[in-house]
Amino acid sequence: MDATLNRTGKPAGGPDARAEALVASYERAGYGRVTPAILQPAEPFLDLSGEDIRKRMYLTAAPGGTELCLRPDLTIPVSRDYLASAQAGRAAGFCYLGPVFRHRDDQPAEFMQAGIESFGRPDRAAADAEMLALGLEATAGYGLATPDIRTGDVALFAALIAALELAPAWKRRLVKDFNRKTNLALDLERLMLGGNNARPEYQGVLAALAGSDPKGAHALVTDLLSIAGINAVGGRSVAEIADRFLEQSALGASTKLPRDVRGLIERFLAIGGDPDESAAELRALAADANLNGEFAATVDLFESRNGFLAARDIDLKRIKFSTAFGRGFDYYTGFVFELTDPTRTGDPLVAGGRYDGLLTRLGSPESIAAVGFAVWIERLASYGAAS
After folding, report:
1. 187 with 318, same domain?
2. Residue 308 Cα distances to 156, 302, 317, angstroms
3. Does one domain contain both 161 and 216?
4. What range does the domain containing 102 cover?
5. Do residues 113 and 74 make contact, with C-beta atoms less than 8 angstroms apart?
6. Which of 56, 74, 169, 343 has the greatest number of CB atoms lying within 10 Å of its CB?
7. What is the largest CA-CA distance in the chain?
8. 253 contacts: CB under 8 Å, gap ≥ 6
9. Residues 155, 138 share a domain
10. What are the Cα distances from residue 33, in Å, to 27, 78, 118, 129, 373?
11. Are residues 70 and 137 in the same domain?
12. Collapsing DSSP states into helix, strand and coil, what is residue 86?
């Protein structure tokens, strides 16, 4: 893939004039227009968006066996190009307009997305507020001045879990399953019962691994799989399968979730309303449970964001905040939002959030702040045509 940030290409598919005008407005706001390659390595999408996306991707393979795909979104391609450019590590913002490709029942597999990705800004609360404000400009440009605004904050849940007395493997599991509500409910049930409910045929292996040296246990599982002639299962490599066994072994350790801790998690997940009301509830929960440190700092950032939103003339009473709201992608680490048409299907017209951990997972040697959003042009164009 070309490592340069190409700002001269025209997007395919003939977007309407409003889409071009929208991206032109983002350019005037200081976001350089980019056009990442359509053909991308598949691994980052599968690793960072979750295996569930595989069934919606259009995959192929290079002669050497490397798995490739038509890009299913633009966040990861823009992030990869940024890391491969001379601007990597410095504050920079980019906008785009182009086709993405996903299998969708009864809908075209190729559709247009616009959006913004902002990297390296230290003023996280202000950057979050700017993304929501620019997202609202997109709906306004298509005639929808007052979309429903739904927001959440993955960092609040992560900070809560970090403060609990739980095994590290369970902390990772709960945070990972935050965007998968059925899985999260099952995790809490397992913890109430004391941990392991792995398949019976695996119990012997998991028991043998429990408490073992992690490096030695990983080598043992990898060797056993290789001896058995197993190279990959369901898209996972031998190393990934070994990691999964070790995680299951750790999850099966004698950990039991006290009832009051589960009650605290459920109380947290029930918080919602407008952001100011929610901030007061979060402060009350922190005081009752003596949650200081990281959790208190994350609530401070939440309240600071509310101030920047108000400064941009966004009425906080219009925002429906929920501590339980997530967007279903593993890479989000903080503020998330969706804008929807209250009179129609509820599919997001604009959606995005903060993904500070993504660039490290893509190979950056240092953590880089990142936030952005995508605009579903076809949904907005359909709204404009019908209104």
Report:
1. yes
2. 18, 10, 14
3. no
4. 1-145+372-387
5. yes
6. 74
7. 63
8. 167, 169, 195, 196, 210, 211
9. no
10. 7, 10, 12, 21, 14
11. yes
12. coil
Identify whether residues 91 and 7 lie together within a single domain: yes
Domain count, the chain: 3
Task: Assess whether 249 and 264 both reside in one domain.
Answer: no
227 and 185, same structural domain?
A: no
Is 45 in the same domain as 187? no
Give me the tens of pLDDT residue by residue for the chain, a chain 387 residues long.
344 454 433 434 456 899 999 999 999 999 999 999 999 999 998 887 666 678 899 999 999 889 999 999 999 999 999 999 999 999 999 999 999 999 988 889 999 999 999 999 999 999 999 999 999 999 999 999 999 999 999 999 999 999 988 778 778 878 878 876 666 777 777 766 654 544 444 444 544 555 455 566 556 666 666 776 665 544 455 555 555 555 555 555 545 667 788 889 999 999 999 999 999 999 999 999 999 889 999 999 999 999 999 999 999 999 999 999 988 777 889 999 999 998 887 789 999 999 998 999 999 999 999 999 999 999 998 765 544
